[in-house]
Specification:
The complex is a heterotrimer. In chain A, helix 7 packs antiparallel against helix 16, helix 10 crosses helix 12 and helix 10 packs across helix 13. Chain A is an alpha/beta fold. The model of chain A has no long low-confidence stretch (mean pLDDT about 95). In chain A, about 40% of the residues lie in helices and about 15% in strands. The radius of gyration of chain A is 21 Å and the shape is globular. Chain B is α+β, with helices and mostly antiparallel strands. Chain B has a 9-stranded mixed beta sheet with strand order 3-6-7-10-1-11-12-13-14. In chain B, strands 5-4-15 form a 3-stranded antiparallel beta sheet, with no helix packed on it. In chain B, strand 8 and strand 9 form a beta hairpin. In chain B, helix 2 packs across helix 5 and helix 14 runs antiparallel to helix 15. The longest helix of chain B is centred in the middle third of the chain and has 20 residues. Chain B is elongated, with a radius of gyration of 30 Å. By secondary structure, chain C is of the alpha+beta class. Chain C has a domain of about 40 residues. Chain C contains 3 helices and 3 strands, in the order H-H-E-H-E-E. Chain C has a two-stranded antiparallel sheet. The chains are: A alpha/beta, B alpha+beta, C alpha+beta. Chains A and C meet through helix 10, helix 11, helix 12, helix 13 and helix 14 of A and helix 1, helix 2, helix 3 and strand 3 of C. Strand 2 of chain B pairs parallel with strand 1 of chain C.
Chain lengths: ~475, ~475, ~100
């Protein structure tokens, strides 16, 4: 059953080829068998899942879009009554008292949560190594990282321990692990999916989105989670198109731009070759490929590492040991309680970003760092705006490398930051992006990123679906997990 | 040495919305601790603020009332600092683009002149919770019911130069916000409180002195005392060769002094930045026109109208218009009978206000309604009772819920209007006191009062004084 | 921008983080490197550029003023480190 895509499972369940209970039991067994090797789950909730599966099976008639299908949630989405840790010691004891809007919507669609997946602490990282619960492993090579920060969701899906999963993407945290794990990952337009109940890292950049085996699976997931939410003022009030219906539209005549800045020196030749092959497939479908320019793209990482830490330094102030979360033992006073609870509760990378952010916002440095970064953000956004006056989508590699070894980059923050070079500008602009598997290098997956204009997720899903009808990279399963 | 005092006030006005500024939790005062603190107010991980429409409208309404600019596109910023009653570790406020800017209002000074005070800005923000310092085994208890209550912080220009002026300004703001019905004005419950920025300089100095900020003054009296204390303290410091330190101070009502606050000292780099969870606030189309049309008559205009329409003197008109409730009460008493305006004003400001003060009641809680007081005044006017008896009737009305007519009826207090009956009494008094008649006739006019007194005594005060006078005069002259 | 040990101490104080003496040097190096890295931003001419705070050019949506939340104190305080009589407890606050 786990070799089926989510869309195939939805159809099989509707035709009663198997029950949701059978399907969920199958995945529960797979998690019990395989997750030891991957560490992709922080909290595994089999009883709850089986209970929900029985309910899904008992529903008749007009059931939700994802009725009976098992999914996994990044442990950043608050789930009522379930531990929601953000992979931090700070929230190791935090049982969320409410559901994130995404969780509510997935429940309404009939999806069944298998549990909460591992990640970089507070979504800050590109390797899923900074988790309080230990590093997540890549199923294609368990000595390597799955990417991050949504590494657990990507790893679990790549190993077929779930039918689909949810991640969040602030600088590439869905697309990069999708690429490194050989699956499909979609970061929607900022504001397309509610952020309510998604523990904030950098509020103006964070966006929740799905991982699927296929673009079609992502369309199913997005259909369920997209839409305006009155609880999130930054979610956008505009109709949600029928993503699934749009998948089979022809892509002939679509124009795809390759930013010359991303194909210059520094790009690994083997990765470039894989991207080149993918372009050939798109051409064969009738797409036109042309070169474009994103002149300020090179500044994206620098601007991001001011803006995201600035927002995070403020967002993470609520973790103060007063109302929830970790409080240090025997504080000697208020100041001691604050400082020790936070220092003991947060990991190194989180503390580094909080400090960088506090500095960038502090008196005398605001203009030089924060304000300048906001201006560069504008430039980057304008670059994309100009590009989309010429092309329907922008194509690049998702990540400059395939999956790297555990501990290879964890000592050097800057090297780690550079893994998001192709993805970060998309968050700064607030655009939608998708990562699609385009082949393997030394047994490790390579991903291609497509970016489209605001609210044009259909274009990405449509292109992805048509591309995946011509290829089978996305259907490969790591041999250890067959 | 002559000193010049420079004072600016920051007044925090709680807006009387049903729900909080960024959540759907209730704002009612006095609930059990933390029962009105929802997930958003507690700053739980993942929650987001959604702005209350009425908070925006009420802030804009204030702006209109003080002739200010209402910014279309005001922005919420985060003010970052750690404090246990501040759940998120930041307060959502407005720094760069507040909703209201550049207003002005007039205050009346003791010498009868007026002074214009500038309002720099009024911005929307959320209130913090409360720290309870009672002993919980040496711990502090935190109640977050108040967290997220909408506030406007009204910042004045440093235009005031004495504690009295500051109080006059604060009273004026209080009167405006309660007139507008955007704040309940309850200072004891903290709905209206004030921080005072005070500095002193030697007369003639061009540079301002170093200022201190005294926090959380929640009565007019405290503001006056705290400012006066601070003025004296700063002058003492400078005269004894020291320097005033820029700091936040706390007023202690118990020993009528201010002291430096320890907790706020280090939190001086607030790292403001635009709140990414909120977007610029667009004023709904037509909102300002609609608010403008719904603006009530404000105190200054009302005062002028009272002087004009009811021929009241300035003092009465000012006192009556200082609170909307009192002004409305007054006008209900008058109810169009303009010739009753003066006597109505006397009753509202005199007997009624005294009784309210004595019982610590607000005019809205008066046991004697305006309609009832109007009836009482009508009975004086139609000579049913005298003014003196009316005071007695009023006391009975205050202590029961009876109308003036009921009290008059039950106690038989109506004036003797039957001329024959009164004439008989007058005749008897004259007949019983031949000596005094003699004296009066020999020119001792003062004795007249004796006859009046005796007639009143015999009628238990129910005789119409004018009628008694007339009868006595005509009878004694015969 | 190279930060001093004193800078690190000040930032830590603002952020309410306790940085031990033996960690100071590492933080100094890491944060200084990150700041140097982000100073690439100086390559761009941003003089007349409007800062961008939000990806969407939208205005705030407004909520109707009504009470929709009910008391959930028990549930919320169940996950709190220390409470008594419905209050959250913290070490003594000195004003």
């Amino acid at each position: 059953m786990h070799t089926l895509t989510l869309a195939q499972q939805v159809r099989a369940l509707a035709e009663k080829q198997f029950s949701s209970e059978e399907l969920v039991k199958h995945y529960v067994q797979r998690i019990e068998t395989y997750d030891e090797k991957l560490n992709s789950f922080i909290t595994f909730t089999p009883e709850r899942a089986l209970e929900q599966a029985k309910q899904a099976d008992s529903r008749a008639g007009d059931v939700g879009l994802l009725n009976g299908v098992p999914i996994a949630l990044k442990d950043i989405f608050c789930t009522d009554g379930v531990k929601t840790s953000c992979a931090s010691k700070m929230l190791d004891n935090f049982i969320a008292p409410y559901d994130a809007t995404v969780v509510t919507k997935l429940n309404q669609a009939g999806a069944i949560s298998l549990g909460k997946t591992n990640m970089d602490e507070f979504a800050m990282g590109s390797s899923s190594e900074s988790s309080y619960y230990g590093a997540v492993k890549n199923p294609w090579d368990t000595e390597r990282v799955p990417g991050g920060s949504s590494g657990g969701s990507a790893s679990a899906l790549a190993a077929r321990l779930t039918s689909a999963s949810m991640g969040t993407d602030t600088g590439g945290s869905i697309r990069q692990p999708a690429a490194l794990c050989g699956i499909t990952g979609l970061k929607p337009t900022y504001g397309r999916v509610s952020r309510y109940g998604m523990i904030a890292y950098a509020s103006s950049l964070d966006q929740g989105g799905p991982f699927g085996i296929t673009a079609e699976d992502c369309a199913y997931m997005l259909q369920a989670i997209a839409g305006h939410d009155y609880l999130d003022s930054t979610s956008v009030d505009r109709p949600v198109p029928d993503y699934i219906a749009g998948l089979s539209e022809p892509v002939k005549g679509m124009c795809i731009g390759l930013p010359e800045e991303f194909f210059q020196q520094g790009l690994d030749a083997d990765i470039a070759a894989k991207i080149e092959q993918a372009c050939e497939v798109l051409k064969s479908l009738g797409c036109e490929i042309k070169s474009i320019s994103l002149p300020n793209a090179k500044l994206a990482i620098a601007a991001y590492y001011v803006l995201a830490p600035a927002e995070c330094s403020s967002n993470l102030s609520r973790f103060d040991g007063v109302r929830f979360g970790y409080r240090c033992e025997n504080p000697t006073g208020l100041e001691d309680m604050y400082c020790r609870s936070r220092s003991e509760g947060f990991g190194d990378e989180v503390k580094r970003r909080i400090m960088i952010g506090a500095y960038a916002l502090s008196a005398g440095y605001y203009d030089a760092y924060y304000l300048k970064a906001q201006k560069i953000r504008r430039l980057i956004s304008e670059d994309y705006k100009a590009a989309f006056s010429e092309v329907d989508a922008v194509l690049s590699p998702t990540s400059p490398t395939t999956a790297f070894k555990v501990n290879e980059k964890s000592d050097d923050p800057i090297t780690m930051y550079l893994s998001d070079i192709y993805t970060i500008g998309v968050n700064l602009a607030g655009l939608p992006g998708i990562s699609l598997p385009v082949g393997f290098l030394q047994g490790l997956p390579v991903g291609m990123q497509l970016v489209s204009n605001y609210f044009e997720e259909q274009t990405l899903l449509n292109l992805g679906h048509q591309y995946q009808k011509q290829t089978d990279h996305h259907l490969q399963i790591p041999s250890e997990f067959e | 040495m002559e000193w010049e005092v420079v004072i600016g006030l920051e007044i925090h006005v709680q807006l009387n919305t049903q729900s909080k500024i960024f959540s759907g939790a209730a704002t009612a005062y006095g609930a059990q601790p933390n029962t009105q603190a929802c997930a958003v107010d507690l700053g739980l991980p993942g929650v987001l603020p959604v702005l209350n429409k009425d908070a925006v409208a009420k802030a804009a309404m204030f702006g209109l009332a003080v002739d200010a600019t209402i910014n279309d596109g005001s922005v919420f910023d985060r003010k970052n600092y750690f404090y246990p009653d501040l759940p998120k570790g930041y307060q959502i406020s407005q720094l760069a683009i507040p909703i209201v800017e550049h207003g002005t209002l007039e205050i009346s000074l003791e010498d009868g002149t007026t002074k214009s005070v500038g309002i720099t800005r009024a911005h929307l923000e959320e209130d913090a919770g409360k720290s309870l310092h009672e002993d919980f085994d040496g711990m502090t208890g935190i109640d977050l019911n108040r967290a997220g209550t909408p506030l406007i912080e009204i910042v004045s220009e440093p235009d005031m130069s004495s504690a009295k002026e500051a109080v006059a300004y604060m009273k004026k703001i209080h009167s405006i916000v309660t007139y507008l019905g955007i704040c309940d004005g309850n200072m004891q419950e903290g709905s209206f409180r004030c921080d005072a920025n005070v500095s002193v300089r030697r007369k003639g100095d061009s540079e301002l002195g170093t200022r201190t900020e005294t926090k959380n003054l929640n009565s007019f009296r405290f503001v006056e005392r705290a400012i006066n204390y601070e003025i004296e303290r700063q002058i003492d410091v400078i005269e004894s060769g020291g320097k005033v330190v820029q700091e936040t101070r706390l007023y202690d009502a118990d020993d009528d002094s201010t002291r430096a606050m320890r907790s706020k000292e280090e939190a001086n780099d607030y790292r403001y930045f635009p709140d990414p969870d909120l977007l610029p606030v667009k004023l709904e189309q037509g909102l300002l026109e609609q608010l403008q049309a719904s603006l009530p008559e404000l105190p200054d205009v009302k005062q002028a109208r009272f002087m004009d329409e009811y021929s009241l003197n300035q003092e009465d008109a000012e006192q009556l218009s200082s609170s909307r409730a009192m002004a409305d009460y007054f006008e209900q008493v008058v109810a169009g009978e303009k010739e009753q305006a003066k006597i109505s004003a006397n009753w509202v400001l005199g007997e009624l206000s005294a009784a309210l003060n004595q019982n610590g009641l607000d005019i809205s809680q008066s046991p004697v309604s305006a309609e009832k007081l109007a009836q009482l005044i009508a009975r004086i006017a139609d000579n049913t009772i005298s003014g003196k008896i009316a005071k007695e009737v009023f006391q009975d009305m205050w202590n029961s819920d009876k109308s003036a007519d009921q009290v008059i009826q039950e106690k038989g207090l109506q004036q003797i209007s039957d001329v024959g009956e009164l004439e008989a009494i007058v005749d008897k008094v004259i007949a019983d006191n031949p000596n005094q008649v003699e004296q009066y006739l020999s020119g001792k006019d003062k004795v007249f009062g004796f006859f009046v007194g005796n007639v009143m005594k015999a009628t238990k005060g129910k005789a119409n004084p004018k009628q008694v006078n007339d009868l006595l005069k005509s009878k004694l002259s015969k | 921008m190279a930060l001093s040990t004193e800078d690190i101490r000040n930032i830590a104080k603002l952020a309410k983080l306790q940085i031990n003496a033996d960690e100071l040097e590492q933080y100094k190096q890491d944060l200084s490197r990150i700041l140097e890295f982000v100073e690439q931003m100086n390559q761009a001419d941003v003089d007349n550029i409007e800062p961008m705070a939000h990806p969407q050019d939208m205005m705030q949506s407004l909520r109707v003023d009504e009470v929709i939340e009910s008391d959930q104190r028990e549930k919320f305080q169940h996950i709190a480190p220390a409470t008594q009589d419905g209050l959250y407890l913290v070490p003594k606050v000195i004003e």
